[in-house]
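Annotated sample (chain length 634).
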Amino acid sequence: MTVVGDPGQYFSSRILRLQAPYQEGRDVKILQSLLNLLPDNIIRNRPKNDGIFGVDTRIAVREFQKYFNLVANGIVADETFSYLGHHSNKYSRKEPVFSSRIICTNSRGGDVQILQNRLAAYKKTFLNRPGSGKYDLYTAQAVTRMQDDFSIPGEAGVAGPQTCDLILLQAPLGGRILKKGRHGLDTYFLQLYLHQLGHYNLDPDGFFTTATFNALKSFQSAADIRVDGIVGPQTFLALGNSLSFPQNKFYYRSETGDSGSSIASLFNQVEEKLLKLSNLKHANKRIKPGRLLRIPMPLAFHLLQKDDNIEKIADIYGINLGNLIKANRLQLSQGLLPGETLVLPGYQAALNGCIIYLNRRERLSELKSLNLKDMSSRILHVFNNRDINRINISPARKKITISSLDGWQGAYDLHKDILEALPLSSSSKKGDYFVKNKKAYHESNFSEVPATAGTSLCFDSCSLTTFANKEKIMRQFRDKHIFRYLQSPDSSHMLIFASSPPDRESTAYLWNWKNRQVIKIGENDTDGVFSLDSQQLLLISRECFGAYYPWFYNKIQLFSSRGYRLSEEILTRSAEINQDCFNLDNTSFVFIMHNPDTFYPLPNSERNLYIKKLNSSVLLQLTSDEKPFSPVWI
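Output written by the structure step:
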């Protein structure tokens, strides 16, 4: 066993207790931070996070011990450390205790596997393989990503004292193997994650009982991993890679003194809607602390950036600091994680227009409209036994064109509320296309497409050709497979997606029709859309990490029509954009976030509509408990 360095006063390096003089140090601060992760029904008297073991910390420790039926003496020894999700010397099986040494290249042991398990179950994980106990390149990359998020200096790619302290707080699940009968803080977070994934329908309480056991087996079965009701390396990995990031389902965690009316007032919501959504019966009745409550849509969020602070966010949006903290305590207790969202209680954005989208239900699809001014929605049409896959807006913005996988096409007149079938053309038998001002706006896999600005376009087996510029484009895309392309509304540019064998990685190119030049603007891009004025375009790219391609994040990035990258709009586990997703003044766009597409075959259960204002940190969630597809903004 190689021990590299000694971080000194690591967590569980000593018994923590109230004594004179007071104990001080980073291990005390970690203890206080972990206790503050728990709800009021477990820790009512919250200690100051000052690194001093005073009377308030002793009271909080005793509350924790009493709740979990430990000896309530206020002394933090091996048993209490274990219930905090941390293996101390007694439980480390003679392996190095996690955070007791600097972990770097060639480090091996149980503490390395704990590091990997914690990183795997982390809600913004960049680890894509179960823990092996060997500190390899992929673990170092995941550590580096976390260090970059929190600007930790001097430990790049190495798990030193600051990094281990951060991981203990940001990744509270993974410090020990969990099974029936093992209770504590890490079990609480296991239940919280299973709740977010739809497998645990109770409020988390930290006790690994039969209900938790059954929920865990349900998740393991859905993820197609070993179903044993034990949380080991494979389950930690499946949990971390299945959680949405940013969060795709917001919960408010009730506190002491909360009632239905007080929560409704905090979020500026109608009491009746909140009561119904959260199954609350009486508006003025006190709610048990620790309940996870759903809040009616719409909800506004701030998309966290590096070095954000809560005071600055409150000032930007003119929100009372206390209300902002209260609404987000479930998130704030772990610290501000870049890329995550903070709900903005009571914030209302001025929105105009209407979103039209498909909503999938069992054996049917609904064509729905959502009026953004008053957030009223209605069903325009129901399609039974037909797999509708795409909708688009007509050039005059008066009709919605609809297509299905079996080749059927229709148009819904928004003014007359009438759906009519469209004749099936010979070219649309192989795909679908929509014509704007006699200029093609189309998608891939056609053998022929309509004329565009006097130039005929077609696909062959591996390249895009034009009669006017055949040799020019053939030189650019020789030995490449073009799997998709689309043209800007004003026909000045074309966005082309191409891949090279073995077709694992893709590249986005922008073709300028005026100067006949093509430039490369991105890699691993999967989709794109031009703004209505053709001056900007959005690209979705996959940011792959590790050697296994099913694991990735999606970036939505904004580019100018000249191919210059303007901004990164959002980093998310899974997102979709659609043609006509921009609003009329090209300042915002609507898109879909859903639970991640990973190696695990979990059903696509969470899909929600969001609006993102360009170059802004404001994110608006419009829907919940639906399965929206193909949104357009009219």
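Annotation: The radius of gyration is 27 Å.
Annotation: The chain has four domains: 26-170, 185-242, 252-284+294-343, 368-574.
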